[in-house]
Design brief:
52% helix; 12 helices; 6-phosphogluconate dehydrogenase C-terminal fold; 297 residues; 2 domains; 3-stranded mixed beta sheet
Length: 297
């Protein structure tokens, strides 16, 4: 394991050199010039780009080769690929390597890690950087992506404090603010403020795209539509995996949201202007309070 007085890994393996994995590699290198970064990605073109851009020092074509001799392993693949990647690297892990991830859901990831890592589960630090963009791949990576952003660590029941502290230091070196919460709390919160909005955005664009006169609707769509549907440009594979991984929370929240849509439908049907205005006012004030107290990315 890393020396407790060592702030950064000497050899980092990044499995999945995309937007998040690539940005982490760039930011950590800026903070620790002596770190050697090995990259693996199943997309050979993306992997070659990462090497050409200098995001990684060396590229390998299988995950197990990437983690050999690494003192830190970051798994930055979509949550649906986590199990396959983790199973492939377990035999090659250093006995003291710290393992972490960047998945948007934590319940399925922690369950999988516990089943596959054995005693190494004590050195597994689940994490979720609250940063991203609608574009993916290493070409979208930025050295400042995490500056001022929150990173949530969800400690496991058996996790050691030293690996957690080192992961915290690495994220802080990338400019992030680190917070901690339970796995269940994490998935409940982000099911509402991240996963649900993506589903709603995808649903609206899907509704218009499947109409026979879709081109006309898109022609007249303006800034409000563009703002609301920006996240519908996100990676479909990734959001498929997130939706299935956080299934229980999303089913509950979709039902809750449906109740509010039914309420709106009822108010409009009954031409209840005062109640409709109250509904909108509550939402407007909450949105204003939030933007007044938070910096939007």
């Amino acid at each position: 394991m890393l020396d407790p007085f060592q702030k950064h890994p000497r050899r980092l393996a990044v499995l999945g050199v995309g937007l998040i994995g690539g940005s982490f590699a760039m930011a950590l290198r800026a903070a620790a010039r002596d770190v050697h970064i090995v990259g693996y990605d199943r997309d050979e073109v993306n992997l070659l780009a990462a090497r050409h851009m200098g995001v990684i020092d060396s590229a390998v074509h299988d995950a197990a080769s990437a983690v050999r001799e690494a003192d830190m392993v970051m798994i930055a693949v979509p949550v649906g690929q986590f199990e396959t990647v983790l199973a492939s690297i377990v035999p090659a892990l250093s006995p003291s390597a710290i393992i972490t991830d960047v998945g948007s859901t934590k319940g399925s990831v922690v369950k999988c890690a516990k089943a596959l890592l054995g005693s190494a589960f004590e050195r597994f630090v689940p994490a979720h950087p609250i940063a991203g963009a609608e574009h993916n791949g290493v070409r979208a990576a930025r050295v400042d992506l995490f500056k001022g952003c929150s990173v949530v660590i969800t400690p496991t029941d058996v996790g050691h404090e030293l690996p957690r502290d080192i992961i915290r230091k690495c994220w802080e070196a990338c400019g992030a603010k680190v917070e901690e919460m339970s796995v269940a709390r994490h998935d409940a919160i982000f099911g509402v403020v991240s996963h649900l909005p993506h589903l709603l955005s995808f649903a609206l664009v899907y509704d218009i795209a499947t109409r026979t006169d879709a081109e006309t609707y898109f022609h007249f769509a303006a800034s409000g539509f563009r703002d609301f549907t920006r996240i519908a440009a996100s990676n479909p594979d990734m959001w498929r995996d997130i939706s299935l991984a956080n299934r229980d929370v999303l089913l509950q929240e979709l039902a809750r949201y449906r109740e509010h849509l039914d309420r709106l439908s009822q108010l409009i049907s009954q031409q209840d202007g005062p109640q409709l205005e109250d509904f909108f006012r509550v939402a407007r004030e909450a949105r204003r309070d939030w933007t007044d107290n938070n910096t939007l990315d």
